[in-house]
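We give this protein:

***
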Amino acid sequence: FIQSSRSMAQISSTIGNDDTHPTHCGKSPIVTIYTKEGCHLCEIAYSVLLNVQSRIPFVLKEADITTDEALYNKFKFEIPVILVDGKECFRHRIDEDQFVMALSGQTRTL
C-alpha cells in the first residue's frame, strides 16, 4: 500500500524536463498517465514511473480524467492508462521492465 502526503498533481508539478535521451534524437520521451484522485492502482503506477525516472530521464505529464468529460467516459474503468510518446502502452498495471523497454523505443502498445 502506498501512501503519500502529497497528491500526484503536486508531485508532477515538480518534475522537470531533461531534454536529452539517446533514443529520441535529443528529446526526452513524453510519458502521460491518465488518472484520478483516490485511484490506488494509479498511485502504484505513479511510483513505478518515478522510480524509473530516477534512472532514465523522461517528461512526465498527468491527465486527471475528472476534469474532462470525454476522458472520463473513455477511461473511467481503465485507469491508470499510460502512454509513451502518445502511444498507449499500459492499462490498469505497469510492468517496470516493459516500461523501460517502451522508453528505449522498443514500443509495447496495446
Summary: The chain is about 30% helix and 20% strand.
